[in-house]
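# nightly structure sweep
# worker-07 picked up a monomer target from the shared queue
# config: single-sequence mode, recycle default, output format = structure tokens
# input follows
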Amino acid sequence: MPLKSKQMQIELIQASLRAANLDGWLFFDHHRRDPLAYRVLGLPDDLQPTRRWYYFLGADGEPRKLVHRIESGALDSLPGAKDLYSSWAEQQQKLHGLLNGAKRIAMQYSANCAIPYVSLVDAGTIELVRGTGVEIVTSADLVQEFESRLSEAQFQLHVEAGKLVDKVLREAFDLVSHHLQSKKALTEYELQQFIRGKFSHHGLQCDHGPIVAVNANASDPHYEPTCERTTHIQAGDVLLIDLWAKLTQPGAVYYDITWTGFCGDAIPDAVQKVFEAVRDARKRGSQFVIDRVSQHSSIAGFEVDDAVRGLIEDRGYGQYFFHRTGHSIGTEVHGTGANMDNLESHDERRILSGSCFSIEPGIYLPEFGIRSEVNVYVGEGFATVTGQQQEQMLHL
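# output follows
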């Protein structure tokens, strides 16, 4: 990030700090434990600190740095006055000076680890900083504002990736249909590798996956086949495909979807009933967001989870939906913005304009699992599902 852009970023952060009645935001790292600090501050990718550094961005005034003498240039890419330390005693003494005048500051901390994505500063450092007399609050909302909002260009990269991923998904289901009709053997792993090959062909990348699972394997939300652990896809099977990818470009954003199909013409009533419950819950969640945003109403992640989970509970499947409704999506498939969650955590973070997230309810019975996943983007006064939506279970 150029120095001018960093200065603009700092001024925006300072304005947000003042709006939140915070005296500052303290960034800390050692051995790149906090990737958020590097992304928010725009620190170089090749910076590999072996000593602790601190960067205090006050609500007003010039930023302040505290770095070890052996790595005195660690934060030279950032504006601000620099101070040096060598011994642990000198570090603690100068940390008091770094925070002089501050009473309430943010750090990458979350009470009771409620938001694990942000809870990155170790407990000992939290104790050390609190020893200076300051109150520490979570930086979760700040992180979301400055790390998880997509630019217009990033949103377009997400949409472009979505069109390609949707195409690959259709090709994958077509391959299954072809093998079933011709009675040729096809395994979960072979289909997974087919999808990865198509990703490469279309200029897409993913960190792992995709998930290709039949029957009871689909009841494990994070199942992935391997060469050694795989099942043949056969007539009468329920097939779930969860795939995510982004373009191989800097700043590209993931697209993440899940569809299900039945290997045969006559879908069993039990399967159809579960699919309809999952589909209806997914649609309730996306429409809930669309309506609230169009009304310019504030909306928190846990509220979306409640809307979706309530329908599944009403249909009698509550105990079989045992993960959050959705996750933030960004340059990482699981981003650092608000999650649609009131199960694994009570996520009270507001859904901000410029954010993208999944809505993906699932019902996982012992015999089979069904999940349906879309991506939702929230803009200024509007929200939209960014790709195709599954309305009926596929016949394969």
